[in-house]
Amino acid sequence: MNQIRILIIGAGPTGLVLAICLTRLGIPVRIVDKEMLPGTTSRALVLHARTLEFYEQLGIASKIIEQGLKFSAANLWVHGHKKAHIKLGDIGVGLSPFPYMIIFPQDEHEALLIEELKNMGVQVQRGIECLSFEQNHKLSVKLKHPDGSEEICETLYLAGCDGARSQVRQTSKMDFQGSTYSQYFYVADVQAEGINTNQQLHLSLDEADFLAIFPLKQKNHARLIGVIKEETKEKDHHFTWDDVKHQALGRLDLKIKSIKWFSSYRVHHRLAEGFRDKNVFLLGDAAHIHSPVGGQGMNTGIGDAVNLAWKIAAVIKKEAHETILDSYELERMAFAKRLVATTDRAFTLISSTGPLANFIRLNITPPLLSFLTKFKFVRLLIFKTLSQISINYRMSFLSEGKAGKIHAGDRMPWDEKLKETLPLKWNARLYGEASNQLIEYCRNNSLPLKRLPWRKELSKYGFVKDCLYLIRPDGYIGLVDLQANPNNIQQYYKNK
After folding, report:
1. Are 495 and 478 in contact, with CB atoms under 8 Å apart?
2. Which CATH number goes with the domain that contains 235?
3. Where are the membrane-spanning stretches (predicted)?
4. R_g of the chain computed on alpha carbons
5. Which sign does the torsion angle of CA 352, 354, 359, 364 carry?
6. What is the reported pLDDT for 27?
7. pLDDT exceeds cutoff 90 at 494
């Protein structure tokens, strides 16, 4: 019987990032996937700033940026006429070291993560399926191998990163509450020519219908996502490119040279009733699925992985009490609930069929967006909303204190003058004067303390002079202490 520290089911981006984080933190992992080969289709495309910040901590952000494509602009079309051009580019300048969105197809993304994990000495074990598990005095997982043989694997923790049809979630008997939208969608990766393959996003709006053309880095390659018209649908019909090509090509000036990949699907919005069952955790699509509006899904799963990884590592290393794991569900479910609700409202607006919805979508939205996005504060608001840098854990029992605009539980604001990557471990920062007692405490307890001179412009980020910020391994603030008293740090750790 095999015994391991943590078993990860599913080798998509969420499972791979969890494995990389834990390995970086010195925790041995086993990661398995029932598929014999990695994904070969591009599926999720967009990486947001907060994910790139996590990747910077893991040392792989530069590789992603080198291989990806920066999102430069979006264009809105109505009945074949361009009605708005929205510049995106570096819209988050001053808020993040990555003030943009990156287009990086999921197959390439997974290949990079798999290679990174391999370089760390961990191989994804393929063709291995999770059948069930039991939690009594120990956690035993039944696995099935490609030859049909079965294995019982004992593990301290089990991470279900196995997608919307998660066997881990089903075995936990946790409801996956929500519903399915009525519309059918298609997605196609194509090689094409035309004015709309200029490496910008193009969104064509019509009555109860839309087509999105997402840019890919390779010249004259793009991804098409669109609604399949009602009259095209038949019960149990297997859709092909021939079913949608006339509506796709008739909308915008595109000449399709080849189809790399085509699929049809329906969109769901669902949330698991819990993200934790004792020592079993749900992450990514196994825990929450929602509309693709805003490209949030994959980024949210990666956020789940980083949040959970450092907590499990701290427990295994006996650096924290096991109760710290309760904060995973508390923190990530709160965000997932908001995300499912927000993307549902946005998707409903985009896809509504009524006359009023059509009028707003076709006549009000394009000129209004074109006007509003000329203002910097609007572009910054869009960036904050999409980039996930505004996610906070203020409600968490791991968050204590506030000073000025900054609350414990907030992401540590980025200081563009400092331009320094946060370490993947607890650390502290103070702008101003630090007491000898604080310096000695941090030195004796191997807590990195960054002492920096106070600058007047720091107040615009919300910082307060001489205030101590105790930062978690995932870049969120655990403790804000105006007194900068080492006894408060000691008490904070004691209570957690």
Report:
1. no
2. 3.30.9.10
3. 6-27
4. 24
5. negative
6. 96
7. no
